[in-house]
Design a protein that fits this description.
Rossmann fold; 44% helix; alpha/beta; single chain; 2 domains; two-stranded antiparallel ribbon; 7-stranded mixed beta sheet; elongated; 20% strand; Serine Threonine Protein Phosphatase 5, Tetratricopeptide repeat
Length: 308
Amino acid sequence: MTTRPPFSTRSSGDMIADRRYAYGDAALADRDWQAALDLFEQTLEQAPHWPPAHLALAKAALALGQEARACTALERVLALDPADHLGAALLLARIGGRPVADAMPAAYVAALFDDYAPRFDSHLVGQLAYRAPELLVAALDRHLPERHFADVLDLGCGTGLMARALGSRAGKVFGVDLSPGMIAVAAETGLYDGLEAGELVAFLEQQPASGTDLAIAADVFCYVPDLAPAFAGARRCLAPTGILAFTVQTHSGEGVVIGADCRAHHAPGLVRHLAAETGFTLLAEQEAISRLDAGKPVPGALFLLAAP
């Protein structure tokens, strides 16, 4: 899987454009939105086909309340880079310019975590107080204390934190992640019986039917706006009485939204509805704060769903 964009994110190739872009970036950091907008316009006069400058202009326009202008700039990003390595669709979804279900491009997520992989564990655990794997294992201990999971699918396995937390409760563990960089780090742990760099639903479609005891996703579904295909894929893979365990980021409204953190936030009611529609039984649901963002707890929930 190719995760790098077909353009440089650091340079347009034009020295003058790069200098204007750097000034605009500094203005964004200082919250001088109008100056930033002007400087990104000047950047694009020199480098009209450079996606990062269009994205930056959109951010400045959004800060100024100019949504129509932001939409135009974001659509230009997508025209220049249909795979959307920069995540323009996420911003479009936030302002109603694109369906939320289509808002999380695989290329963006893969590139994001490829860059993140070398410092993932230290930053996530050390600075963001990440504890989704521990919360999920605690829930399994509480509701299924004697259960051993012979075959486990670690969905969005990252660097292997979930497999490490499961420990002796898991037999064979197979992992999938969009990011080859994450998969490379996970492979070094020796905790997996198989690893694949790929998309979660496609991975589930390749697995044998009714052969999995536990499918688990720790803070993964915040990158999956439309949970229905993932639920259906997991349901097909799970053996009778198999478990789908996961965390989600939540919000107080209905449905799913793209939050200010550019992640998907699912209403708990939506999760329950999709679970029932897919044929799962709700075994457990609880509020769960799995990490911090800017020092504040991120609202979330943990679910254990049982296959009949």
